[in-house]
Structures are given as structure tokens and as C-alpha cells.
Write a structure and sequence with these properties.
Elements (H helix, E strand, L loop, with lengths): L2 H10 L4 H13 L14 E7 L2 E7 L9 E11 L2 E7 L3 E3 L14 E4 L2 H13 L15 E4 L9 H12 L11 E5 L3 H11 L8 E5 L5 H7 L8 H10 L8 E7 L7 H11 L4 E7 L13 H13 L4 E5 L22 E2 L5 E2 L17 E5 L2
Parallel strand pairs: 4-7, 7-8, 8-9, 9-10, 10-11, 11-12, 12-15
Antiparallel strand pairs: 1-2, 2-3, 3-4, 5-6, 13-14
Helix pairs in contact: 1-2, 3-4, 8-9
Length: 374
């Protein structure tokens, strides 16, 4: 709940507005759960990945969700002014998009996360996950990226509600400019995010597009959703997206050996992006379990990036962390629950489908730089 929603609910239980506000602030800022609040105590398991990077799992205990887990990653971000922390959150358990290079996609969609379960990842990261001792590190989460398990626009109502809670000044107080939503490119979902961006207080919310291919043929091979949302539609959606700052879009490009990494592919990508103010974020492929492709070597990554820069495209490389323990970009997902079926809101189970579902289940609420991200 946002502060206003929380206060209204508390007053219905006989609490004063002042007491409710103080309880809300204590819950988010200090991690203190009021005795009269219903906040589940999900067991947390954290694993140190590399240095101060850690992956943590919340084991859900809600009725009908026993045995399911969310996965999140805390990443230290070295800056000139000191080290901050970025939190990579999940919006679903599994994913229905079917991207061939992604571990999460191999699970299929098992469950949409509620807004509170998304926010709980931030709350646990802030108040429950053990932190390594590092005097140079700034405690607390500065940035949040929706780049964990799931496609945010496939659960857009809950994602938007979670963002409203996270931005609330009396709660988590995360600036909208420090939150990024990554999508495979659902134009309808991008428009809904655009509607939120138009609201006061959300103008600087960031949108990232997971492109990963130079043309429709290659993209359809590795991302089945491209059949429904081809690249021309994605480009139109980005060009129509409301902009209130000079910040560039982040266009993510997973570099896969022999699939999308040739000089010709690079030229095509740069031509496609020429009209879009964006940063091309090159992500060396992190192999999923039983992957048909290896990780790219450093020479091919450097060659691709140099070619992009020569084309006039501002380009970054995403730093690789946690690849060996399945905590890097595209590697989240519990292989032991792949055989589970989609759990509908009424508790019934439905077959999981990879790629675009025939009928999607409703949500519960109807120049180069290196980036250190998962």
C-alpha cells in the first residue's frame, strides 16, 4: 500500500491517522512491523556471489504458493563518489515469453507476483539480507531494476502498484529516476508505463528495451514474442514514449556467439536505433542450463562494441557478475520447479506454455562504459 492507502485502511481499524503514518514510516524506514499489520515473514536465503554482490531467495508461504520462490540480486555499483547498491527484482515466478537464451523462460510462467511480494524484495534487501562488511559501500538500496524473473508488462498492474509504493516519500522513498523497467517490448505495456510516466512524480521513470537482435528474422528465432511484436512496432512505441528529461533509453543487447554478433548485425542494430536517443547496453551472453551457445570471448565483445561506437552509437558494456552460480543476467530461475503448472488466482493449475500464451492469465489486480548489473 502507498501511505494514503495504508492510512485509510488503518483508520478503518480504529487507528488514528498520525499513528498510522508513524507505523508506515517505521515499517519501511526501520523494518519494524506493527503488531496490527499483516506482513508475511518470508524466509530469506542469501548467497554471496562475487565480492559484495549477493543473490537472495524469498520462499513464499502464502496459501497456494508454498514451495515457490522469488529471486533477487544485490549489486554493488562503484562510482566516483562511492559505492552504491542496485537491486534487481523479479515481477513473476518464471516467464511466458520463451526467450531461448534465458534460464527463467525455461520455467514457463508459474505465478504473477503481487505488488506486496515485489516490494517485499526491496524490504528484505534493506532490512533482512545480511550485508558484507565494506566501509566504502553505501548501505541501503539506491537503484531498482525490474530485470529479474518475469516480463514486467505481463504483470503490469502489480508492477505499477509496486512502483507507486516504492516511490512514496513516506515509505521507501526511491526516486522514480532510480527505477528502471526492462521489457521484451510489449507495445501495450510500454504505453501503460508511459501513462504512469505522465503523472507528476513519475516523469523520470526509466524504460529499457530488451532488443537482442538486428532484424526480425534473428529476433523471432531467439525471442518468439517478436511474431506478435515485431521490431517496427517496438520502434514506434519507443518514439511515442513520453520524455521529460534528456536521459536516453537503455537498449539491451545480449551478445550470443554465432547468432547476433557479426559486424553486419552490429551495423543493422545501429541503423535501427539511429532515430532513437538511446544507450546500447551490450550484455555478454550468460549461458543458461543446457545452453546451445557458449559465452562470447572478450575479443568478440570488444570488436562488436568498437563497431557500434564507429557507427556513432553510444555504447556500454554490462559487467558480468555471478555467471558461475546462476546469478547473472538471464540466469535466474529454479530448475526444480520447472515442471510446475501455472497457478491461477483461484488456485487451479493450468499448463505452462513457452512463447506467447494463447490466453494470458489475468494479474492479481487487473564512448564506452561498464555497468555492474546482473
Amino acid at each position: 500500500m502507498t501511505r494514503a492507502q495504508f492510512v485509510a485502511a488503518a483508520r478503518e481499524r480504529g487507528r488514528t491517522a498520525h499513528a498510522a503514518l508513524e507505523a508506515y514510516r517505521a515499517l519501511f524506514r526501520e523494518g519494524v512491523v506493527p503488531a496490527w499489520c499483516e506482513v508475511p515473514d518470508y524466509p530469506v536465503t542469501a548467497t554471496l556471489v562475487e565480492g559484495a554482490t549477493s543473490k537472495f531467495v524469498l520462499r513464499l508461504t502464502d496459501a497456494g504458493m508454498e514451495g515457490l520462490e522469488t529471486e533477487s540480486v544485490l549489486i554493488p555499483m562503484p562510482r566516483a563518489s562511492g559505492t552504491t547498491t542496485t537491486l534487481c527484482v523479479s515481477s513473476q515466478i518464471g516467464c511466458a515469453m520463451g526467450c531461448r537464451f534465458c534460464e527463467t523462460a525455461q520455467m514457463g510462467l508459474i505465478k504473477n507476483l503481487r505488488a506486496d511480494q515485489i516490494v517485499h524484495q526491496w524490504w528484505s534487501a534493506t532490512h533482512r539480507v545480511p550485508r558484507p562488511t565494506d566501509p566504502a559501500r553505501t548501505h541501503g538500496v539506491k537503484n531498482i531494476v525490474f530485470m529479474g524473473m518475469g516480463e514486467p508488462t505481463d504483470n503490469i498492474d502489480e508492477v505499477i502498484q509496486a512502483i507507486r509504493v516504492l516511490v512514496d516519500h513516506d515509505g521507501a522513498g526511491v526516486p522514480a529516476s532510480n527505477i528502471s523497467i526492462s521489457t521484451v517490448g510489449n507495445p501495450d505495456g510500454i504505453r501503460k508505463i508511459g501513462e504512469l510516466v505522465r503523472e507528476e512524480g513519475f516523469h523520470r521513470l526509466n524504460l529499457a528495451l530488451s532488443l537482442n537482435a538486428p532484424n526480425d528474422r534473428v529476433r523471432t528465432e531467439i525471442m518468439p514474442v517478436n511474431r506478435a511484436w515485431p521490431m517496427a512496432r517496438l520502434k514506434d512505441a519507443l518514439l511515442e514514449f513520453p520524455r521529460y528529461s534528456q536521459a536516453a533509453f537503455c537498449v539491451e543487447y545480449v551478445l550470443i556467439p554465432g547468432v547476433n554478433d557479426s559486424d553486419e548485425h552490429c551495423d543493422e542494430v545501429c541503423a535501427f536505433l539511429r532515430e532513437i536517443r538511446c544507450s546500447l547496453n551490450v550484455i555478454p551472453y550468460n549461458p543458461r542450463r543446457n545452453s546451445p551457445w557458449p559465452a562470447p570471448d572478450e575479443l568478440s565483445v570488444a570488436r562488436f562494441m568498437a563497431r557500434a561506437v564507429a557507427n556513432g552509437q553510444f555504447t556500454k558494456r554490462r559487467g558480468t557478475k555471478g555467471r558461475n552460480v546462476m546469478a547473472a543476467c538471464g540466469q535466474l530461475g529454479n530448475e526444480k520447479i520447472r515442471a510446475r503448472r501455472y497457478i491461477a488466482e483461484d488456485g487451479s493449475a493450468k499448463p505452462v506454455s513457452l512463447g506467447i500464451p494463447a490466453a494470458k492469465p489475468a494479474s492479481a489486480a487487473q564512448t564506452t562504459q561498464t555497468e555492474q548489473r546482473p
